[in-house]
Design goal:
The chain is of the alpha/beta class. It has one domain: TIM Barrel (Alpha-Beta Barrel). Helices cover 42% and strands 14% of the residues. The protein is built from twelve helices and eight strands. The chain has an eight-stranded parallel beta sheet. Helix 2 links the parallel strand 2 (39-41) and strand 3 (65-73).
């Protein structure tokens, strides 16, 4: 298992209307490489260069591999699919142009998280009444995933995510049951799973339950005290992130030694992408990334 990081750890998130100064991609890539990571995800369209030779140079000059690109789509709405497909294809073509042919990146689809007011307000404590039609949602994901694979050759995975319509363990299980493993599989995100379920011990068990569908892994930690405060005080998703619900690896409640044991047990040999979702201007990203990398080295990766 090799280790990457992502622009979201430097405050570059996919959400609109976020205030705060954004760290430029060149500084982010420099700091990511200096902290000991070997790959990166793309970040929002336009954050990194979209001219393939330029992007390839920026990666190669730092010894970095492109590992994936995140494309949010409002899959709960049929009318959002055409525009979502256009963005997915555009993004997939870019990462295909800079791919390591022996180890190509993945396109990461997700709901347009944070766009539905009720789901955003209740992230981490979702009531079943807020659920969408998972079957229809899954069919739209499959349509985009199938088209992307056919037109670009890039494999597609889906990211369960807080403040979206596939957040909880139950919703994720229903989504997987409604999709074909030949078309789309799962990004397993330890922090989002912990926050969504409120059962930190369930993170490693989920790997056993869904191991045959896990194609990509995000290592994210979650502070159980802040998560509990978010529930008690009814913070919305962005307030919880602002308060630091996603912390440096090893400082929260996710049992990463056990997670690694379970990943090895299922034979996972892909990339681990470290993510510490922070808002623009929060914290000291380079130092946090370096400490998380040191923690993983202490665990043998």
């Amino acid at each position: 298992m090799r280790v990457a990081n992502a622009p979201c750890s430097w405050g570059t998130l996919e959400f609109e209307r976020l205030e705060g100064e954004q760290i430029g991609y060149a500084q982010m890539l420099n700091e990511l490489a200096e902290a000991g990571y070997f790959g990166t995800e793309l970040g929002d369209w336009g954050y990194m260069p979209t001219h393939p030779p330029t992007l390839a140079h920026e990666l190669d000059s730092r010894g970095l591999s492109m590992r994936g690109a995140f494309v949010p789509v409002s899959f709960s709405r049929e009318e959002a699919v055409p525009e979502g497909l256009e963005r997915a294809l555009k993004t997939a073509r870019l990462i295909a142009a800079v791919k390591d042919t022996a180890d190509p990146p993945l396109l990461v689809l997700a709901d347009n998280n944070g766009s539905d007011a009720a789901r955003t307000k209740c992230a981490g404590r979702i009531d079943p009444s807020l659920q969408t039609d998972i079957g229809a949602f899954a069919r739209r994901v499959e349509f985009i995933a199938r088209t992307v694979r056919q037109e670009t050759g890039i494999e597609v995975v889906f990211h369960h995510h807080c403040a979206g319509f596939v957040e909880t363990p139950e919703e994720t299980a229903e989504f997987l049951a409604s999709t074909d493993s030949e078309t789309v599989n799962l990004v397993f995100d330890t922090g989002h799973w912990a926050y969504a379920s409120s059962r930190f011990g369930d993170v490693s068990d989920a790997i056993d339950r869904h191991g045959d569908r896990i194609r990509h892994v995000h290592f994210k930690d979650c502070d159980p005290q802040i998560a509990e405060s978010a529930r008690l005080n009814e913070w919305d998703y962005f307030e919880a992130v602002r308060k630091g619900v996603f912390c440096e690896l090893g400082k929260g409640g996710v049992d990463f030694p056990c997670v690694l044991e379970r990943l090895r047990h299922i034979g996972y040999d892909g990339w681990i992408v470290v993510e510490q979702d922070v808002l623009p201007g929060m914290g000291a990203p380079k130092k946090s990334a370096a400490r998380s990398r040191a923690y993983l080295r202490s665990l043998g990766i």
